[in-house]
Amino acid sequence: MSAEATNPEARPEARPELRRRGRTRLDLRRLGRAALLGPTSRDRLPDAIGHVAEAHRAHHPDADLSILRRAYVLAESSHRGQMRKSGEPYITHPLAVTLILAELGAETTTLTASLLHDTVEDTEVTLDQVRAEFGDEVCFIVDGVTKVEKIDYGAAAEPETFRKMLVATGNDVRVMSIKLADRLHNMRTLGVMRPEKQVRIAKVTRDVLIPLAERLGVQALKTELEDLVFAILHPEEYEHTRALIAAHAGERDPLPAIADSVKAVLRDAGIAAEVQVRPRHFVSVHRIAFKRGELRGSDFGRILVLVGENADCYAVLGELHTCFTPVVSEFKDFIAAPKFNLYQSLHTAVATPEGYVAEVIVRTRQMHRVAEAGVVALGNPYATAAAETGTPAEPGSPADAADCDEERVDPTRPGWLSRLLDWQQSAPDPDTFWSVLRAELAQDREITVFCADGGAPGTISLPAGASCIDAAYAQYGEAAHGCIGARVNGRLTSLASRLSDGDTVQLLLAQDASSGPAADWLGHARTPAARIAISSWLQAHPDSAKPTTTAARAPLSVVGARGGGGNAVADLPDATVRLAGCCTPVPPDAVAGFVVRGGAVTVHRIHCAAVAQMRALGRTSVAVHWRATADCRVTLLAESFGRPHLLADLTEAIARQGVEVVSATVEPPVEQRVRHTYTLQLPDATGLPALMRAMRDVPGVYDVRRA
């Protein structure tokens, strides 16, 4: 917005080989002349937006174009007299941005706001005028993309502008769609600016706008932005890549012949499909060259197969893997497991008899549209909600009427955006927000974990590599300061444990409200929300930030006559049988016996770690079985929160089960967690599960397990 422009031919990024194939280019001089002639009669569209209307009608044949005519008239009249540095009338910029969005399939409301996106910022037009003329929906989007006043924010204007846009995007993703198209046109026309300003804008585009385009799935904008940034920030690598592509253009390209073979295979199989060769863009070629070293002819593009239904995608995959040699390591199924940016496709690679390896992408036509345009292809994000409530959702209709106090909720809001909106509230400092935003957007993969307690939210979206600490702050906010442990997939684990996609997490919170995070949590937190919350707490409690030296837990002192074999019998006459204290086997555990010094037989559970050690030492294995008698001795470990009378309550629960306590050890509390060790004599081994359940039911106890 308020961009300065130049002749597109002045920079290498504007060369024809860099342009996306099939994208219409604006004739800025012709549009400038048309704009200077002023608005036309009310009966027809102005000539300057004729090609915008044509691109829009290609995606929306029944669209009402009258609102576009009114938006253009207001934009042209308000920007009249303003010029870009390249000499074109300023109206050519909103026209170019609108054409980009029209080609992606944006609906009418988005195009209307796009034509007006600079009017409030750069002209005398006010938001109230936009609202009165075009409705609340357009007004909200225009306000979202309008920069904050630099006179009010000074050096913080840029980060605060992005904060404002991101908050607005959380309520309507169309705000960011317009911002991305706006930045693309500005990057196309960046050449007359000073080199240092070009570099600054390119770096912001690289660190913020390109990751946002990736997350919103707008690949058509992302790839061109990547190439434009590549040309500015890495001119030598850009020139080398351009030379590689130019040299390949003069050689025989094997991909068309491979595509013809794929067409023949699918035609013989009766699968209706469209097969295309898709050239790689500059950055993609650069990455492949860096990864593989020497490039071959098939590395400069990929084969795209478009079909009608999801099932056809897998049918195509089966034929490809049957008739060609598949490269198994290159197969990825993003249909069954879509990317977090809505992307769906099957990726594979096949080798031909001539020795070429061709990458193949298989998707439906709808998947292709979403893969190229992302959230832009979803149209009006309120249309579904409006249909459910019976409220018409015409372009420009208010989604947040004055009589509705609820926050605008965009049904297309992804998990990463919800996380961003949460943590930005805790980052009032613009520098913190700006640096953390870049770090957050650098995370390029996302996982989903499930809450074991079934509470809200039922699922949590986190960046790949996130730990239980991140999950705690995502679920509980500042209440996660008191988190002391977690169960992942039913197993007790430390808070530093990293989570994987699909894990089930149960977080354990201390009952003491004054508890807080340890200083080393920062080393395990990946999400900005967790890091900001932990840092804020540590700053407010400087004494707690000092690393504490935790004494090592004393060895478990379990007292009792463990030398006896209980009701275990070894198939070795006259041998002394002892139940191992490390795993305390009880009937009907599967057990193994080993002869140790003195000729005694030690009995372990079959899965005990000591069994592998005994075998490695060459100990003689002895078969062991259980007597018919049912009594047994077992050692249990109980983990709990520290509280008064806990030992008495646990002992009472054990006594109610008719079990004798042979010995009990309670270790000193560590981070409000207490570990108890009980050696118990059970009258019947079948009562062990009920005993463990009774101990877990004691308030404050969160885990009971065999030693």
Written description of the protein model:
This protein is an alpha+beta fold. Helix content is 41%, strand content 16%. The protein contains 26 helices and 21 strands. The strands form 5 sheets. Strands 1, 2, 3, 4, 5 and 6 form a 6-stranded mixed β-sheet that branches. Helix 14 (235-249) packs across helix 16. It is globular, with a radius of gyration of 33 Å. The two termini are 66 Å apart. The model is unreliable at 1-26, 31-43, 384-412 and 546-563 (pLDDT under 50).
Residue share in helices?
40-55%
Computed structural class: alpha+beta
How would you sum up the global shape? globular
Number of strands: 21
What fraction of the residues are assigned to beta strands by DSSP?
15-25%
Low-confidence stretches: 1-26, 31-43, 384-412, 546-563
Straight-line N-to-C gap? 66 Å
Short synopsis of the structure:
The protein is an alpha+beta fold and 707 residues long.
What attributes does this structure have?
alpha+beta; six-stranded mixed sheet; 26 helices; 21 strands; 41% helix; disordered N terminus
